[in-house]
Design goal:
6-stranded antiparallel beta barrel; 6-stranded antiparallel β-barrel; globular; Thrombin, subunit H; alpha+beta; 2 domains
């Protein structure tokens, strides 16, 4: 009777809360099956006239049809130029950042500072079902962008694929010391996995402004420890169950030496300082704030 009662309690907990997942256990399955597939890379080519836009689209269509090749990798091999993204003397790719798919139809969330408010920017999303699969290039359009909150909603167009998408978590439940996982595209390298720790669950806008002259996009930001280089912006942050907790928004690059600071990412200004060792302080835009905006609250 006692064993039956214990089994009944376990099954009830399992049904309500889902299977238990612990940090450090089954991490490879979590990455490959849960948080990896919805992750993507967002490429902003900037504004083009109609003729140039047509030529660009034709070139990318050709890349997507190459046999036994990774279209995204071919694009970087041809035009990456060690992160300069040059086409002759012109800037070919305006920016590259991380994002995540939030619907089966291909809606994508990323940071607004990487795609801008211009609705006519040429945007592509590089995505693959798996870590080492070919990353196809899908054209996307900007549905809306909130520059103050630093979030943009995109939509992949002209495809009938049913995309894997994220499960939202509750960022208000995050505790200092929690393990979190990030899939991002630092320096243009897609599907880069990072395990970080929540250094502080809530850093207020007032404190960040006073200490670093950093205008945070919302009232409080999650602080992560760990080295997240450029291009990680927009990278989705997940808990140990694979639920979305937020987006990497900015980082401290150098220690400030005066009362004028700053942060890279959403903030264009940066720290000044002689210490070239990054202090590994990163800020995350909480998922709950993004959901409020999506739902019009």
């Amino acid at each position: 009777m006692k064993k039956k009662m214990i089994l009944l309690i376990f099954l009830t907990v399992f049904m309500v809360f889902g299977p238990p997942v612990f940090a450090g256990e089954k991490t490879s399955e979590l990455v490959s099956d849960v948080i990896g597939p919805p992750a993507c890379t967002v490429i902003n080519f900037g504004r083009y006239d109609e003729k140039s836009k047509k030529n660009l689209n034709e070139m990318i269509t050709g890349l997507n049809h190459r046999v036994d090749a990774d279209p995204y990798e071919e694009l970087m091999l041809e035009y990456g130029s060690y992160g300069q993204y040059r086409f002759g003397n012109e800037l070919f790719i305006k920016s590259s950042l991380s994002g995540v798919i939030i619907s089966e139809s291909g809606r994508v969330l990323t940071l607004a500072h990487g795609v801008g408010p211009e609705s006519d920017n040429v945007i592509y999303v590089a995505w693959s079902y798996s870590e080492n699969g070919p990353r196809m290039l899908y054209q996307a359009r900007i549905l809306r962008a909130n520059m103050a909150l630093d979030v943009a909603e995109l939509e992949i167009i002209e495809t009938k694929i049913k995309f894997p998408y994220v499960v939202w978590g509750d960022s208000s439940e995050v505790k200092t010391g929690d393990d979190v996982f990030i899939i991002s595209s630092p320096l243009g390298m897609p599907f880069t996995f990072n395990r970080c720790e929540v250094a502080h669950s809530r850093r207020t806008r007032g404190l960040l402004k006073a200490l670093f002259n950093f205008n945070a996009p919302c009232e409080s930001m999650m602080q992560l420890s760990g080295n997240l280089p450029g291009g990680s912006s927009g990278g989705p942050v997940f808990n140990v169950r694979g639920h979305l907790l937020g987006f990497v928004q900015s980082r401290i690059e150098k220690e400030p030496i005066s009362d004028r600071g700053g942060a890279s990412g959403g903030e264009e200004s940066k720290f000044s300082g002689k210490n070239n060792n990054p202090p590994n302080i990163n800020f995350v835009l909480p998922a709950n704030e993004v959901r409020k905006w999506l739902e019009g609250k």
